[in-house]
Please model this.
Amino acid sequence: MDREKENALRMLDGCICRLSVTDEKEEAFRMYYSMTVWAGQILNHTLHRIEEQNKQKEQDEEGGEVHVRRTKRKRH
Model:
């Protein structure tokens, strides 16, 4: 995961934590707004990743090669 996305995830987590403990209405609204900003940054990173994956898939299909990307499954 790249640094910017990792930072956005940490900041989002911090906003959630702060929102859950604040006693001030203004801070609650500020944290909620901040959460939308950080979530928007995470969304942008995800959409960019999906776009890059789709480009790679199209290039692989045009070249006649099909690559299967394997991911590790989480054990429960």
Observations:
- Helices lie at 3-21, 25-62.
